[in-house]
Amino acid sequence: MKKIALFLSIMCCFSCAEKSSEVLSVTVKNSLDIDRAFETVEVDITEVEFNGQSLEVVHSETNEILVSQIVDYDGKVGIDRVLLFQPEIQANSEATFKINIIPAEEKTDSTSMRCYSRFVPERTDDYAWENNKVAFRTFGPVAQQMIEDGIKGGTLTSGMDAWLKRVEYPIINKWYAKDAIEKGAYHKDTGEGLDNFHVGVSRGVGGIAVKTDSTYAVSKNFTNYKTITNGPIRTSFILDYANWDANGKTIQERKHIILDYGQNLTRHIVELKGTDKVSIGLTLHKNDGEVTTNKVQGWMSYWEPFDDSELGQGVVLANPQSILNFDNYVTDKKDQSNLYVESNVSGAIEYYAGFGWKKSGQFQSKEEWNNYLSRFSKCLNHPLEVNVTISSK
Known about the structure:
InterPro entries: DUF4861. With 393 residues, the protein is mainly beta.
């Protein structure tokens, strides 16, 4: 908590009112009896004209400037541009924020790469993403072709790989650069964490599958990508997959993946055609962990011994009412044991998947991890109430 408070005190500064012009007023209400932080407020600014200038978010009472980010595409129909910020709202209270237009040169930001993702051609063709808590990667068509051609070093999976970081600063570029000099360097923990999470053909942390009788069909590696945004609040991108077969059904798949600052869970919006049911998985690795499921709140978790530490994985569905069942699927087939939640799907499904590593200092037990998932679900199903008005100034 001391680190967070120090960070916020450094990042917050005071607004120069005489150089700004208020265009919107945003009231954010928290209806829960818990304090809220690291939840992203999205404000539609499609109609705001700021002509090459910039925007700032200012707390109306304290005049503190909040870290914010403008995203030119958010995936929502009819919305071309959104402003993102993460207010701290106490239990059962509300706060108001001014959205000001300021000269572009007035806006300073030393946090632009807190949430970051990119295509990684120097490591075959990974796509990797991270924030201050977690990091992930998945694999592209070249890695798939290498496996199919019998070339060493390829990877064939649509599972989501986890990079276990234990520092708040970005590590993706640093670890890949180290690996280019010393092959496998990021498999060693020199104080920042490491990649010791095996994904194989499993679902990793939140990959999808379609159940066919008593087995599960899955896609192969992504075929195309599009980076949407990187910044202090959010990174997001799109992955496309080749059509795949599920017991005679042709499945079309596109993933919109979003990771926000301060969160351990990546948001997945998966567009699907060819099925009305989908399963989301967590790899069981050595099958020596503890499974917890909560259908009412819409989440599942797997807490396991992990080398010299422990690891929690989790999935939270945006719509718990869509859940059909859970399946602790154990098989002798290598890397195919997964904990699944099966859900109805109509065109698209939204869920959150991620992890908490004990060695990072964030979670010390299964109970702490499950409490995080329960709280996350509660906040997800009782979102901050946002009211936007045009300023009268």
